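REVIEWER CHECKLIST
Item 1: Sequence provided? yes
Item 2: Single chain? yes
Item 3: Sequence as submitted:
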Amino acid sequence: WAVFHILVIVLQAFVFMMLTIVYLSMASSDNH
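Item 4: Structure as written out by the authors:
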């Protein structure tokens, strides 16, 4: 299924984006 493959890629990109946002928010809070 190509749709399933695309869904997995989108989920991985979404999780990576969320982890990056959380990491940046933690880093910015540590600076303050």
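Item 5: Key structural point noted by reviewer: The mean pLDDT is 92.
Item 6: Recommendation: ____
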